[in-house]
Amino acid sequence: MKYYAHTAPTASGRPDALRTHLENVAGCAAAYASSFGASQEARIAGLLHDLGKYGELFQRRLEGKEHGIDHWSTGAWVALTTYKHRGIAAALAIQGHHIGLQQASKDALSLLEPKQLENSHPLALRLSDSNVEAIAQRFEQDGLTLPAAPSLSPFLYPGLDAPPGAAMLDVRMLFSALVDADFIETEAHFQQATDGSKRYRNPGPTLECERDLTILQRHQKQIADNSDASFDVTQLRADLLRACLDAAPLPQGVFSLTAPTGSGKTLSMLAFALKHAREHALRRIVVVIPYLTIIEQTVREYRKVFEPHLGSDLFEQYVLEHHSLAGTRTRKDGSSPCERDDEDEAKRRARELAQNWDAPIIITTSVQFLESLFANHSAPCRKLHRLAQSVILFDEVQTLPVALAVPTLAALSHLAERYRTTIVFSTATQPAFPHLNEHVNKLCAAGWQPREVVPESLGLFRRVKRTRVIWPDDLDHPKPWQELVEDLATTPGGQALCILNLKRHALAVYSELKKRGIPELFHLSTNMCPAHREARLNEARELLVQGLPCRLISTQCVEAGVDLDFPGVFRAFGPLDAIIQAAGRCNRRGRLAQGTVHVFLPEEDAYPDAAYRQAAAVTRVLLQKHGLAQLDIDDPELATEYYRELYNLTRPADRKQELTEALKRQDFVAVAAQYRIIDQDAINVLVPYDLPAFQQLAEQVRGKWLNATWIRQARPHTISLFRPKPDAPIRGYLDAVPVGRNATADDWFIYLKPEHYHQDTGLVPPTSMECLIA
Fold it and tell me: Which CATH superfamily is domain 209-224+232-456 in?
């Protein structure tokens, strides 16, 4: 009998021979895992992942005569019984390639026994064949053999009693190599050429460190030569760049890069990464950024550097943007929207859309990167194996949620320790993460002990004092909105940036100023799509350069990393790190003797969440402790003290106890559910900012279904929203994007009411709270 892995893609196409599929996935997975020394484990996982497809019930499934067939558990059981404890990681990966990684415990693994599954399957599925010997015989008769047990290295999975943070990441890395290989092979089959041969997508280009570093340094020299910044700021940037290049030859590991706002960290840390990658023969650079606004700016800066030399087409392949805040999570019932025993076209297309980061430079969100490190399903884990032999740059790292600090640091430390990955934490307000080393050590033996890139002798913070902060005189009396509006309306020169803690506050202040007829007034928030935000920021920058009136009312999305230079900034009272970052938008180029940052207590005492409120409370404690005159935001020791106080208050190691217990159990399902950078799920919504472009994109996706090319084109016209509740009014305005016949995406939508998108404020639907949350 001839056994198949997949049906023919068309009536005239060829079905996918199971032997060929298993051999190809095994070879591909082994190649991926070679970057971290786990080729044999990956080869075994590849050969066994679809072993159950040798069962007759599955072959009938391909003919449409059966459904609800488990074709993965048999291979996982064979991995366990053949290789014992050395086969645990492979067994977990095989079991998880359709249903997600489950739990690494003796009790959980014992449930894979075929007779037990036949009697009581947890997913109410049927095994394709419970006779393992018969399945193994067909495997051998098809010309396939497994590697001998002694040849399997003990490298990959340290065991059920190992530090859990490290052990679970090892499993995810193997899982990543398997599922990426499986996705690529399956995609190639269903995209086969007219002669029946598999059609593989072209691999991404390789990182050209020497060339890129030369291009970057030329660009940085041009910036310095043409800069309108003060001499002190220009010299500061030159010293930071030199420090980054001097530190690049150091051995791989964990680094911190602490430098003032406006000192050129974006390009200087890229210079470090390129030279470090050259010195250590690394494969790619991953830039992790908390806010979409900073991603847009970073991509714009990279485009200025590389596109003139690479051309626009190659640049798009060379620098991959992965913006989405969605796509890392499971549904509330624990299932994934594009997995389980599905062979239909829509589910396959959804899997193909999962990014695998096959590019030299990746720019992505903190949500995508960090939640993927703790995910259990194939779509978000697909890309993880690409992190081996890489440099990972974390920009504005102070935004990492305190409650998740310990498990996050443990995972990153293990990446550095075992996978030849260098980690860089960059910010002007460096959190006191080394104080958590003892707790991190319980999850990963290496702990958290970063080396600082910038020598203390440079004294970067002492050399630049570009602002003075005016704190509230009375911490018990808030500033009325009308008084704030009056201050903004009458600010000298008409140039002011005002940053609020909540979207509704920003909208209220903007609306009051607009009623007064204030000229050149702008609003900025994540209710506006990237193309809209960039247009507004460019308009504001042009007015600032010309010295013309410009008032920008924004949420905190503008305060970290965004290149703006106002003579005066008004900042709602909040966390100290946020106030310091806001000050970085004031007198950024040092052209004034001193800029002014006005910190005020908003009329409504409201914050985005409890963690933000706690951080603001620590700022209040420091003000009361030091007094207004002694609180120097340019002193890095103040940031260290702030974070120590914050950790004493919030006790990061004691937070998220459910996550901690799930880690101890090595329960992948529970860990994925508990590890959330943002508590609420997000969705992507195509919005009608540019109506002709919006209509064209909507028509395209409805006709050809969701695909990677469309996503790339739609990204500038898309916003992210928290997933609305089923009864939310905004649900009536969202049309789910099709991914196949009679199937729609779980996280991509088209907004149906163009009149709800305003050219001043972005998407603000009536009677909807989804767009008013910070």
Answer: P-loop containing nucleotide triphosphate hydrolases (3.40.50.300)
